[in-house]
Structures are given as structure tokens and as C-alpha cells.
Specification:
Helix 1 packs parallel to helix 4 (43-59) and helix 2 (18-26) crosses helix 4 (43-59). 73% of the residues lie in helices and 0% in strands. By secondary structure, it is mainly α.
């Protein structure tokens, strides 16, 4: 799953715990664990997670 790979990469880059990522990005602290267990998020949730990562990177850039 492409989204999960991107999230895992983001968490490695930022050192962010998976529960914090889920809580901040889609208001679900179990989001990443659910993805790891096969959850298929809808388009809206996927877009929220992608937007969160993009905004975080731009806000915390060098």
C-alpha cells in the first residue's frame, strides 16, 4: 500500500510515533496500526494524511 509506505517513511524522517501521526493527521490514534493490519482508507482520509505530511514538511523545512 503506497500510503502506508509514505507514512512509514515520514515517521522515520520525523521520529514521530505512529499514535501521534494518526491523532494529528486524521484524528484517529489507531490509524497507522489499522493500516498495518490491512485497513483501506477512503479517498478523503488518504488526502488528509497526505496533506498533513506535506504541510508538516513545509512548516518544518530547514
Amino acid at each position: 500500500m503506497h500510503l502506508l509506505r509514505e507514512i512509514e517513511k515520514f515517521m522515520r524522517e520525523t521520529g514521530m510515533p505512529w499514535t501521534k501521526f494518526g491523532r494529528l493527521s486524521v484524528r484517529d490514534p489507531r490509524f497507522v496500526e489499522d493500516l498495518r493490519n490491512g485497513r483501506e482508507p477512503g479517498k478523503k482520509i488518504s488526502q488528509k494524511a497526505e496533506h498533513f505530511m506535506s504541510k508538516w514538511r513545509s512548516d518544518h523545512a530547514g
